[in-house]
């Protein structure tokens, strides 16, 4: 009987979010501001004072700062699934700008979907779903 040779490339596992691993979904954040508009003052303050700290805390994310004269400040997040999210920053204080950048960092980039009635759990594999309880069986579970 011939043995089948297993190549190293066949033993590779594909990364996925799960119990022991977390893959960040955001890949790039672009901060756009105007040098002259007063509505960009807090965004400019955040960029000059706090952005370097946030970038050091998130080395997996590329941070880009663009100057757009005559436009309101925005934060745009680009995600690994090809989508992007845009958040306007003109009404926020400096800590509010940081919270919105953190919201982009924590977001998955997926489109927000309504939960359908009776379909709460979605999975890629077939499995029995639900909470098991020893009280819901004919003979009670004894320890």
Shape: elongated
Low-confidence stretches: none
Strand runs, count? 4
Largest sheet: 4 strands, mixed
Rounded average pLDDT: 81
**Tally the helices: what do you get?**
3
Main structural class: alpha+beta
N- and C-termini, Cα separation: 49 Å
* Largest sheet strand order: 2-1-3-4
Helix and strand element order: EHHEEEH
Compute the gyration radius: what is it? 23 Å
The proportion of residues forming helix, as a percent range, comes to: 10-25%
How much β-strand is present in the residues? Answer: 15-25%
Family: Belongs to the mitochondrion-specific ribosomal protein mL43 family.
Protein name: Large ribosomal subunit protein mL43
Keywords: Mitochondrion, Ribonucleoprotein, Ribosomal protein
GO molecular function: structural constituent of ribosome
Walkthrough of the structure:
The chain has 143 residues and is an alpha+beta fold. It has 3 helices and 4 strands. A 4-stranded mixed sheet has the order 2-1-3-4, with helices on one face. A hairpin with a 4-residue loop joins β3 and β4. α1 crosses α3. The radius of gyration is 23 Å and the shape is elongated. It starts with 25 loop residues before the first strand and ends in a 37-residue tail after the last helix. The relative contact order is 0.17. The mean pLDDT is 81. Belongs to the mitochondrion-specific ribosomal protein mL43 family. Keywords: Mitochondrion, Ribonucleoprotein, Ribosomal protein. Pfam families: L51_S25_CI-B8. InterPro entries: Ribosomal_mL43, Ribosomal_mL43/mS25/NADH_DH, Thioredoxin-like_sf. This is Large ribosomal subunit protein mL43.
């Amino acid at each position: 009987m011939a043995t089948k040779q297993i190549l190293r490339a066949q033993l590779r596992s594909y990364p996925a979010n799960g119990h022991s691993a977390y893959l960040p979904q955001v890949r790039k954040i672009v901060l756009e501001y105007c040098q002259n508009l007063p509505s960009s003052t807090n965004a400019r303050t955040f960029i000059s004072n706090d952005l370097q700290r946030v970038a050091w805390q998130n080395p997996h994310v590329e941070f880009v700062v663009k100057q757009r004269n005559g436009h309101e400040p925005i934060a745009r997040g680009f995600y690994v699934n090809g989508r992007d999210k845009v958040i306007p920053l003109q009404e926020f204080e400096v800590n509010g700008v940081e919270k919105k950048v953190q919201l982009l960092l924590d977001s998955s980039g997926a489109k927000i979907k309504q939960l359908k009635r009776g379909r709460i759990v979605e999975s890629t594999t077939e499995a029995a779903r639900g909470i098991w309880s020893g009280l819901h069986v004919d003979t009670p579970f004894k320890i």
